[in-house]
Each structure stands twice: as structure tokens, then as C-alpha cells.
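Weekly sync notes, structure subgroup
Attendees: PM, AL, DS (notes)

Item 1: joint prediction request from the bench team. They want all two components modeled as one assembly rather than separately. Inputs as received:
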Amino acid sequence: MRRALYLALLAVILSAAPALASGPDAGCRKCHPDMAAPMPPAGQGHAIACTRCHLGHGQASTAQAGHAGMAANPAALDQAQRACGPCHAGWPQKVRRSPMATAMGLINQTRYLWGAQLDAQPRYGVRAEGPLAALPSPDRSGRPVDDLLRRRCLRCHLWTPGAEADGARRSAGCAACHRPRDAQGRKPRGHGLTKKIPVRQCLTCHAGCGVGAEYAGQTPRDALAGARFLDEDPEQPKLWQARSWRPMQPDLHYKAGLACLDCHPRSEVMGDGVIRPAGLLAVGLRCATCHGRPGAPAQEAVTTLGAPLNNVTRHKKGLVLTSKLDGRTHRVPALAAGPAAPVAHQVPQHAKVACHACHAAYAPAAWGLQVQLETRAAYHLWQPIAAQGDPQVWDLIRRQMGLPPGRRTPPVTRDYLSGQARPGMWILSPFFRRELWRVYGLGPEGRTFLLSPRFQYVVTLLDKQGRLLRGAAIPAPGLSLTPYNPHTTARATVGCAACHGAARALGLGLTFVQEGKGKDGGSRLAPGLWQPKAEDLNLNGDWTRVVDLRGRPQQALLVPGARPYNRAELMKLLRPGKDYTRWLLKALDQEWPAKTEAPRR
Amino acid sequence: MAAGKSKSSDQRLLWAAGYALAALALLAALALAWWQEAHRLWQEEVRAVNQARATRLQRELLAAGLAPARAQVRAAALAAEPPRVIEVTPSAFGRPERCLTCHQGIEQISPSHPVEAVGCVACHGGQGLGLTKTQAHRGLLGRNPSALATAQASCGGGKGAAARCHAGRQDQAADMVYRVERTIMATMTGVLTSLRLAWGAQAGFRARFATAEISDPRRPVPAPPHTLAGLLRVPGGQPAGPGQAHTADEHWRKFCARCHLRAEREAGHSVHGQGCAACHGTRTESGRYLGRDATIVRRQPGHAAYHRLQPTPPEENCRRCHNRSGRLALNYRGQVEDENGRTPWPQGRPIYSLSGGRGVHQLLPDVHAEKGLSCVDCHSGREIMGDGRLYGRMRFQTEITCATCHGGPQGPPRTGPPDDTSRYEAQYGPLKNGPPLQGDARLLLSAKGRPLVNLRLSKDGPVLLSRSQPGKVHRLALVSSDPQHKQPGHQRLSCQACHSRWTPQCYGCHDYRRAAHAMWDYAAGQPTPGSWEETRDQYRFTDPVLGVDSRGQIRPFVPGCQVVYTALDAAGRPLPGQALSVARTKAVGSGLVSTPIAPHTTRREVRPCEACHQSPKTLGLGPGPRPLGRLAARPLVDLKAAGLAADWETLVDEQGRPIQGQTHQGARPLNRAEIGRALAFGRCLPCHRDPQDPVLADPARAWQRIGPGGDWEAKHRAAVEKALR
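Output from the run, pasted for the record:
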């Protein structure tokens, strides 16, 4: 049957191009002579005809005839199996099952937190794929969360191209990564795919929500227009991905010239065909993969999932990483051991502490997330926070505010999955955007990990007439955090007191340990600083309160294996004992030697 | 030719005559209208007023649920009331006044100014016997006679000795108008001097300019400390150039000058009248009149809500101005500015409750606010209305400190006998109905050694008599009752260093000036070229960072203000050399200024000792991670990419050199030795944290013995090892 189709296709091509020169795509080249970049690149494999990937009629003499049945982006996920699969066997299937294509972590966790499904197990994906069903439309499911996901969150996955905004433009499918854009998001001239994927291309999705942009030294600014400091003219803001960014110190690996792909192996990025309950579990890369542990340098770079880093090789003096982008080599430093090593590296209990717990310079996070479905033409309310990272919302508010108040129309925004427009727009705003609130818990491997809200939802819904259906309610279970390894690595560290004795860091809320003991002989905490109840928000404690003093979790951690500290751990970390003091004194000697002064009378 | 000429001149004549006639007719009509208006019978005016009253009554009755027919009847009765003259002869003056003929229903201004005694004319001027508006309002002192331009004539009662009220009095305390004209809230010279200093518009710390030219002819000789002989009016006119130094005065006139006693805000959160009414008046955010005088326009802002002065200013009146810069009135109630659209949205909208589209989050309030104290319960009349002297800075005018009420580590608060001012305040002030001030009473003394009328030594110890809640008495907690306060080495700490729970941190202030646009100039009273905008970098509430204030006390520091300046051309492009510039002057240092503050976020609970002794951040060395062996944090912001000179939260570098500027003369970050000492103790802290520990009683002696070369050095080391085994 298929062969018959191919024959028919061949017949059509031949009949359409009797007068043309030889070659199955000679017709294409007549109009597209500047599509010079060959596929595959020169010297690798055999040159292939345009029609091999793009379909259409390669020997047609008119554009119309030639373009009939053509696939403009053969790398889109619904084409890739046909177009790329024959040569890159297995990859299209793996990519379709990768978290970047299914978005299953985002979808199932959010649905669970909004009470739309009983657990956060992978049930739904962007499309039906393996065990995953396609995310239902809100009309069918009756769940507002499905609408939020479709019209706001699911801008970023491999099934759809990026949005039309600086920093967000990209293709769909394989080309999302393998066909990088320039700084303005324009397609490069000509045509071609590359394996040298720059950081900026990864950031078209991995920015503003989880790990990503901070690696290159960018963190989102607060949304209020008055908090945009550096724009030269406040009336002409320079936005990137429809929001404003603060330039921060990049990760030291970025400064050294390493791109995302230099560390993350192919099987992690494009997937290994396994669907896991959380995206984090697909990442087998650890700092130790290259750097080993103190006193035990890595002998070969293999992730915990068994994937080798094929750009890291062993030399006499240790591992050497060769950058996939520029070919430069980097010696991988081994971690010092022995009495001269940083004290924190000597502490045996710190084997259970992830490197970033101390070495992440800052942890950008959005604490508390108010979400509202807005159906009124009340754009003036949202204008001050219009640059909130969604190109649709930014464009809509700016366009409508350009009209006189009487001529503004209620908002209509597009479903990123179906392309369909529906009334209303989703407005999002965090309560507190912070870089310096470090809150810890245990990651999936039982190591101390930073936690980041993902997310802590407060939901306001309006009906189609703009009447209030639900006002600032926290859905059940509602609040969640995820183990978070901010890519802000620095050689400098935050010091012992960042965790030990620091109530907020241990997940007890915006508070501190008071001198003296509490009624039950335990620690006494100062009252929490922020008062959500005074703001009509039914929340005990605050966003950074992950656990109470008795070790009872106050929020959900949806990555299997992750949890807040338990009571025993809290007690040990809050009221440091002799062991800690011994190490602390050593650390202080090391941290600021000879910088202290004798007390004065 | 000639015929044509005469024809055309005839025509011209005709036209001219026509024009003349029309003009005459118009003039006659105007004259008639004027004559009618001027000679309108007063009865007609009163009838119009009655009609207005009737309309309002009807609306009120309908709103109260009365049947429309009955409301109609009662309104008609009021409208039909025959005009009659209402005459009052105020007992203080003995001259009859007929103002109430029209202004029926107007609220009594205050119980101490009953209309029967004071009348209207004493305050408002005008002709009390006039019956029509034109006659009666001749020489009127305006809508708000307490504005400082007219206060001398109205509140002062300047019409002869018999009528002296709040001015021209021998008793300095009673000479309110003189005092208020000179109070820092009227001169605003502190803000202006800080701004001029930091922007490089003046070289020295001496205050030179104010909202209006003012001098103090009654200043005693020798002059009391920190008082000034006089101040000049802030310079007006166009800046001499686009640079920051040239534009400082204009920036003040267009931005800062909205809030002082000579300025009015007609509506909005910061609504306030001028002069006495700014604090004692009653305005609402709509800025509209809500009272019962039917002659007062109700559709326009710029009116007091009621014709009422409050003897004790309510806290909301303080908040109208004190919600910017240090934001003390917000901090006190635990309110902190938001920067993400003031979530949550229970009503489906962000709540921007402050001026300039600002909203607030609710944090823990100050403990004094929790106990029911309002601003005026602590702050004395002399602090607020001034003591008659001119001061260059707010801190020179304020008199109270925490120790005024709570004493110090060594003993209870200082007390003394009442003076003239406290006796005057006891008799006429908000406490006049409270417990009488006995001759042998002991009052608590301010930092200037002056007795404060509401702080008394009772049998059970010092108490505060509440002004905001008359009758309420607060017993004052004493610092000396807790021995922790006596720990050596903490003598220079202000109470705020430990007891402030948080400080508002408005990091980075980017000021843009557009030469091409015009903006309202509060000094010129009209728009002038040059418009201003401000953005900030981040607003945070953080654990206080400490420095040394101008009195040598260790105290929280906040940004104040960290100004980066850009001058834009008509297209919004920065002028050459005027983009993101930071001033630098000899007196101040960097134009990024940090300032000592009393944050008004006091709590009983204090940060743990480690919060200072193991935290270089609190000591001013910056947030963020530190390289091993270094004290100073690496800035988290990429300063180069951001175009910035310094990190917002870092006051000092590792060598003890200040990074940020100071507009308070003598204030500075902690120096190297101070930082070194504080951190040195951080090493002792894990073992020596019990307040009774002898090491804490004399750390210097302990250090001498166990430090390098001390006779107990080896012994201590062995003891540490043993203790930690």
C-alpha cells in the first residue's frame, strides 16, 4: 500500500517536471537557490533532496504545484518520524516521550494541585503518547486548570512553535533546538540544522519558571512597571519574553564558556523513552558526574542514569571537557580534600548535602502565585503588571489601553494547543519574587536540596459576564514546592549560618529562633513576619513555611522521594550541638582568618 | 469712480453704525446683568440656598427609605421657608455676624471654637454683616484660613490685642503660628538639603533653603544647638544645564514638594490641606465636602470633608505624607510596599491603596501599634509643631527616643518638674480632660531635657497617658528590668539595632528628566518645562543592616536615596553623558546614599546573636556568598551589565571604606575595627551565650587572657577541645 503511494508520488513528480534538469529537487532550487546549507552538512553522509524531508513536488515548475502537500517544518513532531526517523532511528519516538514534548510534570502536578486529579502521577500530556492521554480541553473537562495550562503555561513545549516576542521565537519539534535563532529571534539566512545549540536557544523556554535564565545571569524583575530600573526610557521598555530582567552574576560554568549541552547529555535532553513522574528524575547529571566528591575525583563522566558525557575525556591530570560549541577544552577541577580543603567539604554529614546548597549564589523564585481568569475589559487594572512574561497578555493589554475606554473589548486569548481563541485572559502575579530566600528540604536522593515554589496557587475566577466566581482561594492541595538546583554556581559560598540555626532556611517560615526555650522545651520561634490573613488570604504561616516545628509537612513536594526536614533533623539543625560547633569554629577560622579584632574596653 | 467710492464709504458707515449699536446693546445687557447680580436681593440668594437644602434633604430622605411623596412634602416645606436673617454675636468679639443666614447647617469647627464664642469672621475674615455673597465675602481669607499664608491673620487672630489666639503670645508654647511656620514639616529643609547634597547642588551640610523664606527673630542668644537664623526660599527658574546638580532644586519643586505644610493635595491617598488643617483637618480621598452646608460645592475635590478641626490629629493624617522615603507611618502598621500587583485578589482586582499606584502587604505591626498607640501618643507637640526654632534636620527637632519612656540599661527614665509648655499643654491640649497636672508632678524628660506632658511618674512607675484614646493609660516597660541589656560591648547599640524586625528597603532610584515635557512646579504654581519620572530597582523587606548614625549610635540603615540620573531628549534618548549617572561629592561621597533610620518596626522579640556576630551582611558587607577567607560578599548583580557602580545593600568594603554616601553629617558604615570585633565574638558565641557568663561580663579581659599570647591561651584551647569532645 505504502509502496503504491510512493509510486504514485513519483509519477506525479515526474509528470510535473518533464522539462526540468535532472535531480528530484531541481524545481525547488530554481526558486530557492540560496538554500545553500546542505543537509546533512558537507562531508557527512549523502546529500539528500529537499523533498526527502519537505515533501511537495521537487520538479514542479510553479510554486503552487511544487508546494502542494509540502511540510514547511518537517522537524515538527508530527512529521519527524517520517522525515527524520529513517536516518535518526528511534530519536523521534524518544523526543515525543521526553518531558519537553509531553510537559507531563507541569500538566499533572498543576492539575493535582488544583484538585482536578487525585495524584500527580503522569496521566496527561500535551498529546496522547504511550501511557499519557491528551490534556482535555476545559470545555470537556469543566476544569479551569486545563484552560490555564492551555492558554498560559503550554506556550513552551515541542509541539508548538514559540510565541511572537523577543526571546521567545523558535520553531517546533526538533527544530526548536536544532535551528537556533539570532538574538532578535530571527531565522538565520539559508537553511540548516545544527548540533551546536547555544544557551540562548534553550532559554527560549527555560526562562522565568524553573532552572534556566539564571545560568546566563538573568532573573525576572518584579512585574510592576515602576520596578523597571535600567530601561533608558520608562515609556519604551526593552522586554525579553514579554518581561523585564535584571542582569545578575551568571553561573561560573557559563562564564567559563560552557553551554547547557556541554553538561547535559543527549539522552537527558532528547529523552530516553522512559516516562517518569517528574522531569527532575530525568536528569541524571550531578556535579559529581564531573567533579567527583572531595578526595574522590571522578574517573569517568557518567550520569546516575548511566549516560556518558561523550565530550568529557580522561587525561593524565584528570577529566577534560571539550565544549560542543567552540571546541575549547576545559580542565575539570577535582574537589580538594584533606585539612586544607574547605571545612564544609570535610564534614562527613555533608555527604548528604547537594553542592548547590552552599554553592548556589542565589535562588530566584516566585513565592505565592495569584492566578486570575479575567473576562472584563478592565485592562487599566492590569496595565501596571502587563509585562508579566506572557506575550499574549502583554500585547492585548498594550493594544487595548491604546483605545479610548469606551471602545475596549473584553479579552480573548488563544489556546496554545488547539490554536482556538476563547474569551478571557489569565493574569498571573507572584506575591514575593526573591533571590535571597533560601529554603531547604531533601531532594529525591535524600540530600539537602534547595526548594522552590512550583507553584503556590491562589485562584480568582470570573465568569463570562465578569462576575466573581471564586475570590483568592487556595485550591486543595494547592501549595507545592519542588527540589531546585538553581544554576547560579559560584566558588564563593553562603556560610554555615545560612542553614544551621536559620529557621527560614529550614522551612519554618519567615521567622527566627528566639533565645530561650519554648513551653515544650523545644525551640521558640518568633511570630511569622508576613500576615496573610490580614490580606484576606486563608493561609497558615507563609509561603516559606514548608514544615512545622514538629516536622509535619505544610506543603506538598511532588517529586517522589523529596520531603521537608523531619522533626529530628529540624532539632539537630536548629539547635546545633557540639559536632557542629567544632566544625563551625574551624570554618570561621578558615573563612575570615586574622580579620577579627580584640574586644575593646 | 467717485460714485463707487462714496457708495463704498456709505456702506462702511452703515456697517460701523451697526457694529456700534450691537456693541452698545451687548454692553447694556452685560451692565444690566451685573447690576442685577450685584443688587440681587439677599432673599433671593437665601431662597436659592433653601432650594439646595431642600433638594439634598429629599435625596437623604429617599435614601433613608421614606416614601417619595412624604419626602417631597418635607423638601417642599424646606424650600418654601421664608428667607430670614440668622445673626450670631460671638461673645469673644461682640460684633454681630450674619454668615449662618446662608451657611446654615455647617458643622461646628471644634468644641473649643464654638460659633457662639468665636463666630466665623475671626478665622475666615470677610464682612460679617453682609447679606449677599458679594458683600459678605469681601476680604475673605479663603477656603482654608489655616494655610500658613493666612494663619497669622486667622488662627493668630491678628485683629487687635483682644483677639490674640494662637499668635503674638508671650507664652512661647501658645504661639502656635510662629512655631508651625518654622517646624521642619513646613520648611522641609531636611529633605531639600539631603537632596541638594547628594545631587551635588551644594557642598556643605548646612541647610540653606526652605519652602518659603523664613527667619527666627526670637532665637535666644546664645543660639541653642542645631538651630538656624534663617532659610531662603528654594531657588526657582530653569536649570542652568542638564546635569544632575543643576536639576536638584527642580526635582524637589516637582516631586518632593507635594508634601509639606505649604502645599495642598486636593484628592487621593495623600490628600491634605495646607497649614494647621493638614494635620487637624478632616479630608477624605475623594477630596469632597460631605457635610451639611448646602452652599459648599460638593462636586469638586480640594475641600475638607467636614468643617471640623480635630484637637488630636488622627494617624491617617500623618500617613497622608509619611508614606514615602522612610515610610515610617506604613512601617509602624506593618505595611510594606508591594511590587507585583498587590496580590491576593479576593475581589478580582489588585488594591493600590497608596498614591502613585502603590499597594501594600501586611507584616507584623510595631509593638506600640499593637498596644493601641498612635503617632501623637509618643511624639510631642514640640516635635510636630516645632518649638519655634528653625532646625536643618528632622533629627534635631525630634526629642523623644526609646529611652525617654523606657529608660536605659542602667536605670529608669529621667524625670523632672513640669515647665510652662507642659502646663499649657495640660490645660489646653488633648489631655485637658485627663488627670490634672499637679504642681509636684514628675514628668518624663525628652532627650533635650524637656518635660513631656503625657509621660508621668505615677506611684506604680512611669505611665503614658494616651492622647489618641483619652483616658487610656499605658504602663511603661523598663529596659533595666532585663539584665540582657547590660551586656558589655553593646553600649553604642540603639534599641532599633536589635528590636527592629525589618526595614523597608527601596533599592535603587532611577530619576528621569524629560526636558521636552512640562510638569507642575509647586514653587511656581504653574507647569514649567522639565518633567520627571522615577522607577526603582527592587523593594524588599529585609533584616536590618547596621551602620553608625550621626550621634555615634549603631542603628539600621536603609537606602536613602540611591539615585541614578538620566536626562532624556524629546525622543526618549539619553543626552550625552547623562545616562545612568551617579553623583559623587566630597561631602557625601557616592550619590548612592544609605541613611540611618528608626524604622518603627519595633518588636519585643529580637534577632539571635548570630544575626550580627556571624553575619557580615548585617554588618554592611553585602548579601550573597563570600569567597573563602574574604569578608565582603561578591555582588549578586552583574554591576557592569547593569551599569551600576555599587551593590545596593553593601555599605562598606573589606578594608572598611564606605561604598555608599551619607547625607547625615557624621553617619558612616561600621569600620574595619568594629566589624572585626563583632565577628571575633561570633567565634565565642557557640559556647558563651548565657547572659550570666563571666566572659560576657568582661570580654576584653577574657580576650587578653585567652587570645594570642595570653596566659590562658593553651588552657582555653584545651578547654574548648574538651568541651566539644
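Discussion: Chain B touches chain A through 96 residues (CB under 8 Å).
Action: AL to compare against the crosslinking data before next sync.
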